[in-house]
Amino acid sequence: MPEIKTETLAVRGVELTLRRAGEGPTLLLLHGANGSASWLPIMEALAEHYHVILPDHPGFGDTDQPDWMDNISDVAYFYLDVIEAMGLDSFHLAGHSMGGWIAAEIAIRNATRLKSLTLISAAGIRVDGTPMGDLFAWSPQETVTKAFAQHPFIDQMLAHEPDEAEIETILKNRQMAARLCWSPRLHNPDLKKWLHRLTLPTLILWGDSDGIFPEPYAHAYHALIPGSALEVYKNCGHVPMAEARDAFLSRLTTFTKGAA
Amino acid sequence: MDFFFFNLMPYGALDLDYDKKYASANLVLPNSYYDPKEGHKLYTRYMDELEYADELGFDGVCVNEHHQTAYGLMPTPGVIAGALARNTKNAKVCVLGRALPLVNNPLMVAEEFAMLDNITAGRFIAGFVRGLGVEYHAMGVNPAFSLERFHEAHDLVIRAWTETGPFAFEGKHYHLQYVNLWPRPYTQPHPEVWIPSQGSEETIRWAAHPDRKYTYLNVYSPFSAVETFMSMYRRVAEDDYGYEAEDRQLGLAVPIYVAETDEIAAREAKPHIESFFNKFLRIPNELLLPPGYTSISSLKAIALAKREMLGGGKEMERMNELGMFIYGSAATVRARLEEFQDRVGLGQLCTILQFGTLPHELTKKNMEIFATEVIPHFRGRARQVQTEAAE
Lengths: 260, 391
Description:
The complex is a heterodimer. Chain A is an alpha/beta fold. Chain A has helices spanning 40-47, 72-86, 98-109, 140-147, 151-159, 164-181, 191-194, 216-224, 240-243, 245-258; strands at residues 5-11, 14-21, 26-30, 51-55, 91-96, 114-120, 202-207, 229-233. By secondary structure, chain B is α/β, with parallel strands linked by helices. Chain B has one domain: TIM Barrel, CATH 3.20.20. The chains are: A alpha/beta, B alpha/beta. The interface between A and B is medium-sized, with 18 and 20 residues.
């Protein structure tokens, strides 16, 4: 199994904590509002195919919150600086949920270094008439039942008792997620206007039972990004990396090979 | 000690079984539970009670702001305060307070308060609050910027009241090319300011600052916590700012029920005060404490204790022991308030004499006994500081 190494990188006064594993084409993973926890269980499997980089966004996990970072636009520009600082010239970018939103905002600003873009259960747009779930008002139990579709996952998550350190991380992540995404809720009204600029290979992956961004969000993204490919997994919630793990891995690796 | 009559204006006709279907009387309770005919009767009655408090000799009448809730029917307290400004003669009209971060242009608050101050010829007290956490859900405002917006909005209001306009206000959250208040406040340099709060060192330091010397009004805390916060205010004033805080800078808001005897008070108050704490003030943590509104360390302590802050199950007797509700005969209530006054040097008491479902007749009786048998006892009574250390 490829070893996961943790390091820090100083960019714009932020000590960015990031994990790296594996060799091969570079795949930069952007996590959602819940932090890197949604990517970690699949990171080693991805590292069999890629040089995987998984940062904790500023204000999440082990990275501190800079005072000046107020919105997703700030985060996107920050990552453009990170990409330059790391010397990433040609790489695959994949983002989940809020991380998908960040990925889309990065790509509309500058996609010249990107080989491909993968948006998984992504925030960033609003589909009128289809309300998104209210992450910030739900209890932890409600969140689990909205985010997952399959019982083994729901039961496992509900049975989990976080320890003190984990509670602190959860609270930190929620606070920064609120700062960045509370209003307008989990989207940028202007993003829709510019998604047509994404002409790079783009893959959209979604669960048909996502209680946070229901399936119409997948189709809306698909319609807004010309030439994008869409795959919707059956009986799958907000985290296809968990609930459609094998199909997800195989689709992503095939897609990025084609985009190399 | 000065005495104020606070009416929260709850929807007293609420079907108390709502909680079999809904988690809270805030935000998620469908407004089909509100009957406008009952609402009209309640507004009329509550305003009568506020005006009656003026006749009874209370020093002030207080209203406040809450949104999308059966807990309080004053999303715009200035409407009530405007009527009180004309229908009261002596009592100060107090808006305790407006939730500054919830408005997108705080100049509206500066204007509204300046109008009230002019109409009443300075018989007005301005309260500034952040609003309950649940109100950040109700109004769509980002709780992570609550404190920033509060401070910036406060600075804008004070500058609008005190500086000659027009001037430009260049903030992070509020940007105005022209600030030029008409009317200017009647009270110079500006109306008296109170800060209702559940208590935090940061708020107390800020309120006590010599540039402000605002009255810190503690709401809904056990008396042990009130004592801690008020001692902190006095200590910060003395040690850090080099002045002695006056009693007028320390206030407490608390529901009280006084009757002919302790037994009658207990019997008459119990269902209504328990409806207040357990039904009207029932809010799950996720709604009450949105991320960013409260510090991570406080939220962590609550999560580790698995504590629902406002989850119901509160009993009158326990609330009385904690000092979060006071009931009894006039003698009992006087003794309790003397203790409060002596222990912390309380200068302002906001009595909540209507709470939850308490009907008009009992509210009126409560007000009358309080006004005739409790207030006069404290006129001219100074704090009696214990010289002996507590055993």
